[in-house]
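A.,

Following up on our hallway conversation. Structure tokens first:
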């Protein structure tokens, strides 16, 4: 045991049980650093502190461990279940993580609605919705939805009910992208049959759909309805093309997931081939984080815990690299999730071995591609920062850049934004927004607004704050400040900064007209090459600051407008205002509501609803 092991940890190590279970490492503040499972807690946990675990990430973690907690389980499979739940809940800093695991694209079918929608989503928790996926990327989902909508013509409108308040069908009906259930052009039963076809296709049952289209095409041609025949032909070709893209015949394999894995240094890539009834229906690509020093068996186990813990279904067979060794505990864990037996197979020969080797090769290529892409992006960022240092004659490389923008409408609801780049990468945790406090009733004043935002930003830096008030975004000083505007905004920012005892911070302004860069003490602007990485970096942060400010400004305007709508309505206080907005979902739908629709709002008496309707029409608000 290491000599510098904290006393609390040393005492915990002496009490470790020999059976299976889960161990948790915490720092001095009680925050979870790492969660793992072990067949023998005593043997596994002690290796961390006896020099037996040389993984670089784990070595960095050891200095922070102040306490060890264990939970004993009845078997290694139970430990896997518990580990999965704890990791999902706490997301420890040093555990292997599946990148963006909460935002995989899915196709959702809202089967609980009278006229279901088929839509793109990144959630998977609503009741009454059937989910297909997750898919490899958003583009493949949108391409699939586009093809399905051309073939099945389900409604693309949002909300649980189809159509618009006007009762007139939208453009999608006229371009044959919707069968308009909103005007009764298709019955509820006919629409449900159409949705069943969508579900069958997404589930891999394409044969019946193709036969139906072939029959309709033939019948239309026989009846000399050639335009209809051409439409059915085009839909048939679209379905065939989509099915061919999604599937390749692998009849000898059956239903299985084939997993390929490649790891190098701090990066790892996973490829999953989905074979359903002998067809390769899709391929998913993932990247893992916090992998340095972990062996393939640990990486595979961590991936399966997270991926299959969120997957909509688990096949009866999982084909994994033969090199991962014993998979009995993993098989028992997956069987518990599926509710029936799951075989985790390590193929040595035959078609499954060939497919698994192919998945490994794809993972290796994805890892190489990710490395090449990451290096290319890194070099591009370095090039951009170097160009800015040269072109703007900066004292140091602008590692941290802050950009400020103002958004207003004739002086109303004026706001400011601050966005941050570190190493030429957005640092959204440090973005800040400001509601302008200055009196702008005389009209917009971008100069005064910019001076206020800059003053408040550096005023926060100058304050001596408590630990609760401390804000890293204001505590760290930038190497370069970018002002969205021209000479006037630049002068206002410089004047505001002079009120504080600050070290030298470079300040520039970027004007939109011809992308002029204004710097202090120079009358003529600097014109950078439009193709230069430096100017493109400045444009990117300027556009991001504008987007962030505009979003905040629109939110404040909408809030103010919503408040003003209700100010003069009879009998409407805070509680009824909430009830109205909860019922209609938006102020616009409320303004367009009929008297009968207002009377249907829970908590609004019929007499009050009629008064509200009369008041809205009297003021011309609807």
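Then the amino acids I'd put at each of the 622 positions:
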């Amino acid at each position: 045991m290491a000599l510098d092991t904290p006393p609390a940890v040393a005492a915990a190590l002496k009490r470790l049980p020999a059976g299976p279970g889960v161990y948790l490492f915490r720092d001095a503040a009680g925050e979870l650093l790492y969660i793992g499972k072990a067949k023998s807690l005593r043997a596994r946990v002690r290796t961390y502190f006896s020099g037996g675990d040389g993984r670089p990430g784990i070595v960095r973690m050891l200095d922070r461990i102040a306490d060890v907690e264990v939970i004993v389980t009845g078997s290694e499979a139970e430990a896997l279940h518990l580990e999965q739940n704890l990791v999902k809940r706490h997301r420890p800093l040093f555990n292997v993580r599946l990148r963006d695991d909460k935002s995989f694209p899915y196709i959702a079918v809202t089967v609980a609605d009278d006229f279901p929608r088929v839509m793109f989503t990144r959630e998977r928790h609503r009741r009454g919705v059937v989910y297909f996926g997750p898919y490899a990327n958003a583009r493949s989902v949108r391409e699939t939805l586009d093809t399905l909508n051309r073939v099945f013509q389900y409604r693309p409108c949002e909300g649980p009910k189809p159509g618009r308040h006007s009762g007139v069908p939208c453009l999608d009906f006229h371009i044959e992208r919707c069968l308009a259930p909103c005007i009764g052009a298709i019955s509820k039963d006919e629409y449900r049959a159409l949705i069943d076809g969508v579900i069958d296709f997404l589930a891999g049952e394409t044969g019946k759909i193709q036969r139906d289209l072939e029959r309709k095409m033939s019948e239309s041609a026989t009846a000399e309805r050639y335009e209809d025949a051409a439409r059915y032909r085009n839909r048939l070709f679209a379905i065939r093309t989509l099915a061919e893209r999604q599937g390749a015949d692998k009849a000898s394999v059956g239903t299985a997931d084939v997993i390929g894995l490649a790891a190098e240094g701090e990066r790892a890539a996973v490829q999953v081939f989905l074979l359903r009834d002998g067809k390769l229906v899709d391929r998913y690509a993932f990247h893992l984080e916090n992998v340095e020093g972990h062996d393939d068996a640990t990486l595979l186990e961590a991936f399966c815990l997270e991926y299959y813990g969120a997957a909509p279904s688990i096949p009866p067979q999982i084909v994994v690299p033969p090199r991962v060794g014993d998979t009995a505990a993993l098989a028992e864990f997956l069987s518990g999730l599926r509710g029936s037996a799951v075989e985790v197979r390590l193929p040595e020969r035959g078609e499954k071995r060939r497919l698994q080797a192919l998945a490994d090769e794809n993972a290796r290529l994805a890892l190489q591609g990710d490395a090449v892409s990451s290096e290319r992006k890194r070099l591009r960022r370095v090039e951009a920062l170097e160009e800015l240092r040269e072109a703007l004659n900066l004292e140091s490389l602008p590692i941290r850049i802050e950009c400020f923008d103002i958004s207003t409408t004739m002086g109303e609801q004026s706001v400011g934004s601050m966005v941050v780049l570190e190493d030429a990468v957005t640092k959204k945790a440090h973005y800040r927004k400001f509601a302008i406090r200055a009196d702008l009733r005389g009209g917009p004043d971008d100069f005064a607004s910019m001076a206020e935002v800059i003053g408040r930003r550096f005023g926060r830096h100058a304050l001596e704050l408590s630990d609760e008030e401390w804000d890293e975004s204001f505590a760290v000083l930038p190497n370069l400040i970018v002002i969205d505007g021209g000479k006037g905004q630049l002068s206002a920012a410089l004047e505001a900064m002079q009120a504080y005892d600050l070290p030298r911070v470079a300040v520039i302004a970027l004007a939109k007209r011809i992308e002029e860069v204004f710097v202090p003490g120079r009358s003529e602007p600097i014109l950078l090459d439009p193709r230069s990485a430096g100017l493109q970096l400045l444009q990117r942060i300027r556009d991001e600051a504008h987007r962030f400010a505009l979003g905040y400004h629109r939110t404040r305007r909408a809030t103010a407008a919503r408040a003003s709508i209700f100010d003069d309505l009879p009998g409407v206080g805070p509680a009824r205002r909430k009830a109205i907005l909860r019922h209609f979902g938006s102020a616009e739908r409320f303004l367009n509501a009929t008297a009968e629709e207002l009377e249907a709002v829970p908590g609004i008496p019929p007499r009050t609803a009629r008064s509200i309707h009369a008041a809205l029409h009297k003021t011309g608000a609807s």
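Residues 400-555 form a domain with the Nucleotidyltransferase; domain 5 fold (CATH 3.30.420.340). Curious whether your intuition agrees with the design.

B.
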